[in-house]
């Protein structure tokens, strides 16, 4: 399987959201104005963006509404940057309390939509950072949304210095989904059939993942035997690298690598967001 084994994150959405709502409910006015790692966005803006994610998925996947159209010659990253910024600017008119209430109201509707989805069906939105030449399965699309919500919660927590939502059962699926970017991450490196590369993420939520060169492309694979390239980093480094919360250079300083230098360089530049 190119994308690896199925992972079902649907039971985790309510728990992740409850942690987010409890966090937001305890913030003061200064907290809502705190800057985040997202350039130009404070906590209020990040929460407005999460609301946009909820509304856009319900509109598109549940209601089959096309939404904003691409401008002429606009790339996907440019489209997302533009439409995200447009919504965030509008959401600045909403009070923190209303943002919380809207997330609380719409979240269960999103949960119900995902619960009715066939995990093996074609994704409504392909996960471009996992593959661009083949369609994504629904489970990967849903998993990508879970990582989006969890990461934005962590960005808020970082901004207000309140730790949380890093229990292994909440965090491990984020790392697992991000690791599905491995085959695309090394796609430019042609290697003999059977060549392998492994990624090890250390910590309670960590794990080990592999990719193998098979039938002319890289695929997810169980990390067995001695690989041609190996990268090890801690769980905090990995999720921040995958979302560019830290630079590639910083991630490399925090990592241990061995074997094929081109493959290890590729793995330590893994990206699991659209950019």
TrEMBL record:
Q: Which Pfam families match?
A: MDMPI_N
Please state every residue range assigned to the domain named Mycothiol-dependent maleylpyruvate isomerase metal-binding.
15-156
> What GO MF terms are annotated?
metal ion binding
The name on file for this protein is: Mycothiol-dependent maleylpyruvate isomerase metal-binding domain-containing protein
């Amino acid at each position: 399987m190119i994308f690896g084994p199925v992972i079902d994150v649907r039971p985790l959405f309510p728990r992740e959201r409850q942690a987010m709502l409890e966090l937001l409910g305890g913030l003061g006015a200064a907290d809502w104005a705190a800057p985040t790692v997202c350039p130009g966005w404070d906590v209020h803006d990040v929460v407005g963006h999460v609301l946009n994610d909820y509304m856009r998925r319900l509109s598109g996947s549940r209601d089959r509404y096309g939404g904003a159209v691409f401008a002429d010659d606009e790339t996907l990253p440019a489209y997302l940057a533009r439409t995200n910024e447009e919504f965030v600017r509008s959401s600045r008119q909403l009070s923190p309390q209303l943002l919380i209430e809207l997330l609380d109201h719409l979240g269960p509707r999103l949960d119900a939509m995902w619960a009715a989805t066939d995990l093996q069906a074609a994704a409504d939105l392909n996960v471009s950072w996992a593959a661009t030449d083949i369609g994504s399965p629904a489970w990967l699309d849903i998993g990508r949304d879970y990582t989006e919500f969890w990461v934005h919660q962590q960005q808020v927590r970082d901004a207000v210095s309140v730790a949380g939502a890093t229990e292994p059962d909440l965090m491990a699926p984020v790392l697992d989904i991000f690791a599905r970017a491995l085959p695309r991450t090394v796609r430019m490196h042609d290697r003999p059939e059977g060549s392998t590369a492994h990624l090890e993420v250390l910590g309670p939520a960590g794990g080990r993942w592999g990719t193998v060169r098979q039938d002319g492309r890289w695929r997810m694979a169980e990390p067995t035997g001695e690989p041609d390239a190996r990268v090890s980093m801690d769980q905090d480094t990995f999720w921040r690298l995958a979302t560019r919360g830290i630079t590639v250079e910083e991630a490399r300083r925090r990592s241990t690598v061995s074997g094929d230098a081109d493959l290890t360089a590729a793995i330590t530049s893994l990206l699991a967001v659209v950019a």
